[in-house]
Amino acid sequence: MLLRFCIMVMGKFPFIRRLLIKKMYDNLAGRIQADDWRFMNFGYAYTEEKGSSVQLEAQDQQDQYCFQLYEQLLRQVAITPASSVLEVGSGRGGGAFLTHKYFKPDTTTGLDISDEAVKLCNRIYATPGLNYVQGDACALPFPDNSFDVVINIESSHGYPCFKTFLAEVKRVLKPGGHLLLADFRASEDWQRWQEEWNAGGMEKINAHDILPNVRLAMEFEQDRKENLIQSHVPARYQHFVRNFAGMRNSLVYNRFHNGEKVYWNFVMQKPA
Q1: What CATH number does residue 103 fall under?
Q2: Which positions ≥6 away from 247 have C-beta within 8 Å?
Q3: What is the dihedral of CA 67, 72, 78, 82, to 10 degrees?
Q4: SS3 of the chain
Q5: Residues in Cβ contact with 213 at an 8 Å cutoff, skipping those fewer than 6 apart
Q6: How many domains does the chain have?
Q7: Which of 120, 137, 142, 150 has the greatest number of CB atoms lying within 10 Å of its CB?
Q8: Which structural domain range is residue 188 located in?
Q9: Residues 73, 182: contact at Cβ < 8 Å?
Q10: pLDDT tens for the 272 residues of the chain, in order
Q11: How many other C-beta atoms are found inside a 10 Å radius of the C-beta of residue 47?
């Protein structure tokens, strides 16, 4: 009952949602310092024969499905040794880290609203060209025309104003730069989401319904995520985290399987 109430409040009051999300991520990062918990997304499983374009090293294979949510977008744009990449909503940092490791841009910056998550990432991922900073997705602390690629994975649904976020992304992207976004919305919000995209001033290069791929990854990830929860989460928080992680028969899991949620990815380009 408490969980349903929190979800209802977060849905109706965007600024309360922002405060609650920051507090939640600060608590998760502060309490769970484990190096092996690098992602908090639902993942992506290929259903076609082509599969991933990246061969992960042995130590990274546990994060295959979570990173494929990034990889299936990154493969759609050109990332070169001169590229500058920004991830907005970098969370526990695994996405920015593996993007930097396997796609090899010149610089990768992870930005997150959680101070504790940023501290954790800068401790775990000490890599040349990779850094994490604290900041607000709707007031990005970067100059105009700073990045070739902006990544946003399962984060924008928590922002108080998606239009403001898009305006900030467009501002910090270089002319011709790309926004790569994968996220979900309530089914009844789908039309409004499309209108916000259309008003954002960027060209839509690609857009796909990836809900089947996400649901498949959720099934593949059940055992691994349960082991992480049991190993690192205090017992009194495990029910909440299981729901947050989309574990089988949780409220979130059921909403993804009964038509209450849509899940899409987008490749957008700032006019050159």
Answers
A1: 3.40.50.150
A2: 222, 225, 226, 229, 253
A3: -10
A4: CHHHHHHHHHHHCHHHHHHHHHHHHHHHHHHCCCCCCCCCCCCCCCCCCCCCCCCCCHHHHHHHHHHHHHHHHHCCCCCCCCCEEEEECCCCCHHHHHHHHHHCCCEEEEEECCHHHHHHHHHHCCCCCEEEEECECCECCCCCCCEEEEEEECCHHHCCCHHHHHHHHHHHEEEEEEEEEEEEEEHHHHHHHHHHHHCCCCEEEEEEECHHHHHHHHHHCHHHHHHHHHHHCCHHHHHHHHHHCCCCCCHHHHHHHCCCEEEEEEEEECCC
A5: 44, 45, 46, 47, 72
A6: 1
A7: 150
A8: 2-269
A9: yes
A10: 544 555 555 555 555 656 666 666 656 655 666 778 899 899 999 987 778 889 999 999 999 999 999 999 999 999 999 999 999 999 999 999 999 999 999 999 999 999 999 999 999 998 999 999 999 999 999 999 999 999 999 999 989 999 999 999 999 999 999 999 999 999 999 999 999 999 999 999 999 999 999 999 999 999 999 999 999 888 888 898 899 899 999 999 999 999 999 999 999 999 99
A11: 10
User: Residue 227 and residue 49: Cα distance in Å, rounded?
Assistant: 29
C-alpha count within 13 angstroms, C-beta hemisphere, residue 261:
20
